[in-house]
Amino acid sequence: MSKGKVIVLLSGGMDSLVTAAIAGSEAYELYTLHINYGQRTEKRELKSFNDISDHYRAAKRFIVDMKYLSQIGGSSLTDYSIPVTSYNPESTGIPVSYVPFRNANILSVAVSWAEICNAGKIFIGAVEEDSSGYPDCREVFYNAFNRVIELGTKPETFIEVVTPLIHMKKHEIVKKGLELKAPFEISWSCYKSEDIACGECDSCYLRLKGFHEAGVEDPIPYKTKPEFTLIH
Amino acid sequence: MSKGKVIVLLSGGMDSLVTAAIAGSEAYELYTLHINYGQRTEKRELKSFNDISDHYRAAKRFIVDMKYLSQIGGSSLTDYSIPVTSYNPESTGIPVSYVPFRNANILSVAVSWAEICNAGKIFIGAVEEDSSGYPDCREVFYNAFNRVIELGTKPETFIEVVTPLIHMKKHEIVKKGLELKAPFEISWSCYKSEDIACGECDSCYLRLKGFHEAGVEDPIPYKTKPEFTLIH
Q: What are the residues whose beta carbons fall under 8 Å from the beta carbon of A111, sequence distance 6 or more?
């Protein structure tokens, strides 16, 4: 029996796939939400979104057009004049792929939808430590956002953002996904390419590192793969 | 000399007009932002937005398409199957014109834009007491949102939402606008009509009550006007 409706934010990448797997395993009825913000790999992400929504038999799915984030620009994901950089272990600070305040925009529309369809939770696959260092992927940000939800919706509304992966390392996310039989082969993480994953951008690097440290092979093909020192 | 860039959220209504007048009088360089969320009176509001932006010589203006709020629906402003109700002094609770979590969506895009164009403040004409009772028009909501901004943007970014009208009564807003020579005749507040303001919806009622209590005539024409008991 369903424990009620929840919204799952689903970019189509590995983290959102495992988040959907967790929500599905907890017997919630899934409402999947995808944001098109003009990112380079949108077409490919959208296919993954639909495949994952099919796999988990989403009760409803909603694709939101948020192209104003690419009109605003300032990120290599949405402004095609800024190149997607290859992973650099020595780089510090917030990477050029950071889309200004993106997750607040995404959560806001999720809350608007949740308030109308009576969903009590919003699942998002944000990862804090083992990630690119975006400020809007930290637990403190989600805690503060939950306070905004409490104050900015009707008094009878109770909606909470939940972040089941927030303190997981990438290899733990891979293991969790394997444990829940998440179909990694239909997910898409690459920031740069839509046909074969580049294997070089931050997102490919972190995904491949996760699979490597989990001691399993990523089922999707790559143009190139980084060398990892053997750790298992 | 300019004190720096600020974003002014400008629906085109009386409150946002006076907010622009305040920001303009404080010698900020104005970046005006208008949201099209599929509301009934969008065309008329857009004209007011442009007229007010011209009047205050906005350095930049940005019109954001947020039609997903009308796809989500649930409000008489965006869902045309829900009628716009006439003002009823006995009604309690949150009115049907409430657009779920609208102001969080609007502030989020404003912050994204502010982060890219280095604006330090976002002016919004929210009014707490003398208003329709929307949860996202309360000072506590804006304080909580400022915390989200602090945590969800780059560490070197400082952006603050400011709400100069939040504790004003409607007649005080009218007086403030008159003092700053705000051109009320180019603003538009009606929720229902785009040619002549209806004079019956919550928004017309609150505006007319403000003018009445300030003891001045609203310069825009109305189809009908409510009867007010003489108080001045």
A: A122, A149, A152, A153, A159, B100, B101, B104
Is residue B82 within 8 angstroms of chain A, CB to CB? no
- Which domains are present in chain A? 5-189 (3.40.50.620)
Question: Which of A69, A70, A142, A151 to mutate to probe the B interface, most B CBs <10 Å?
Answer: A151
| Sign of CA pseudo-dihedral A210, A212, A214, A216 | positive
Residue with token string 């400022």:
B146
Quote the pTM value.
0.92
Tell me which residue in B71, B109, B152 faces A136 most closely, judged by beta carbons: B152
Does any CB of chain A come closer than 8 Å to the CB of residue B138? Answer: yes
Strands, E assignment, chain B: 5-9, 29-36, 60-65, 121-123, 160-162
Gap between the Cα atoms of B187 and B19, Å rounded: 12
For residue A220, the tally of other CB atoms under 10 A from its CB is 19
- The predicted model gives B118-129 an average pLDDT of 95
Strands (E), A68-200: 121-123, 160-162
Mean pLDDT of chain B: 92
For the record, the structure tokens of A14 come out as 């590995």
pLDDT tens for each residue of A32-58: 999 998 888 899 999 999 999 999 999
Residue pairs between chains A and B whose CB atoms are closer than 8 Å: 130
List pLDDT tens digits, range B12-21. 999 999 999 9
Of A71, A109, A135, the CB nearest to B152: A135
ipTM of the complex: 0.91
Q: Do A105 and B112 touch (CB under 8 A)?
A: yes
3-state secondary structure of B151: helix
Would you say A184 and A17 are in contact if contact means Cβ atoms under 8 Å apart?
A: yes
Do B188 and B41 contact (CB within 8 A), yes or no? yes
Residue B66 DSSP code: -
Rounded Cα–Cα distance for residues A52 and A119 (Å): 20
For residues B27-36, one letter each, b for 16 or more C-beta atoms within 10 angstroms of the residue's C-beta and e for the rest, the string is ebbbbbbbbb
pLDDT value for B230: 62
CA distances from A47 to A12, A63, B172 (A): 8, 12, 54
